[in-house]
Amino acid sequence: MNELITKQLLFNFFEGQTTFMQRKLIEQWLEDSANEETYYRCLDEWERGRPQVLVDPEKAQQEYDRFLAGGALPEKRSEEMFLGNKRLPVFHRSWIALLTAASLIFGLASLFRDDLMYKTFESPTGHFTSFFLCDSTEVTLNSNSVLKVPRFGFGKEVRQVWLEGEAEFKVTHQKDNLRFQVLMGYGYRIEVLGTEFNAFSRARGKRVFLEKGKVKLNLPKGQEVYLSPGNYFTADAKGSFQVITPDEPLAITAWKEQTFYFEDVTLTEVVEQINERFAAHIKIADRELAARKIGGIYQAKDPDALLQILSAMFEMDIIRHDEEIELRSPKNPDL
């Protein structure tokens, strides 16, 4: 924070106890978008310490929706507003209108805070999405995956995003060597400077495949693992991990071509991949069928396309229920 812009100064500003020069200083400070997150955090703290601020939840929701949609914020017509029994001056500037809307929003505390501070990218089921972050880092998000990024841009110490699902990152190196971190939950964190890698973060484990550059992985128990190009890190749900160099990386990155690459894997593994990519609910009814193995490259844009191939290969029945699909070995009619 600027040495002249302190938390106490912002608190005084929220209470209407700043001079004209102090208000001008804060206005100039807010012209730098990098200061917006600090500003809103202080506003949140100030609001939470003053429960006498009354908020109309329905109106706050309307203002919040308009704000996220990029719509114009309503201007205040009155020269004054009230905090309890205290009159506070209201200044007719665009960022003061933003302050008014933000006050309503933060009055709802945790209900809206994450949505306001972070932007969420989601990839629809059966498709992947590519986009650029504000630092020019390119992200390709796999089907049924979510990436959360700071809404007002990265800070000056670290570029940090949150991944649930699978994505490929092409991280842009910056002159100041600002670190780029991918948080994957449960204590897993990828830290890079400039590189290309594939990250997988789902309930059954964490995986990282490094294509170019170098990354450091921070693990739940304080361990650190460094990867070189071609290294493939995998960890199961219990935290056991290994680092290998796969002979065929296509099995890891085939999703970018809407393709499945199976190399002598069980039907259980196949079903897990289908469920993850398409948000499907498929289960295998018997152990013998689940243990059967498959290999090959298959292109499928929806689960039905792949299930029909599997049905022909394994001569299995596909039984559809209301909320799930069951795979079962056919009954022997002679028994």
UniProtKB/TrEMBL annotation:
Keyword Metal-binding recorded: no
Pfam families from the UniProt entry: FecR (PF04773)
Molecular function GO terms recorded: sigma factor antagonist activity
Domain of life where this protein originates: Bacteria
Keywords assigned: Membrane, Transmembrane, Transmembrane helix
TM region positions: 95-112
Protein name: FecR domain-containing protein
Species name: Dyadobacter chenwenxiniae
Gene3D superfamilies recorded: 2.60.120.1440, 3.55.50.30
Keyword Transmembrane helix tagged: yes
FecR protein domain residues: 122-216
Annotated signal sequence range: none
Cross-referenced InterPro entries: FecR (IPR006860), Ferrdict_sens_TM (IPR012373)
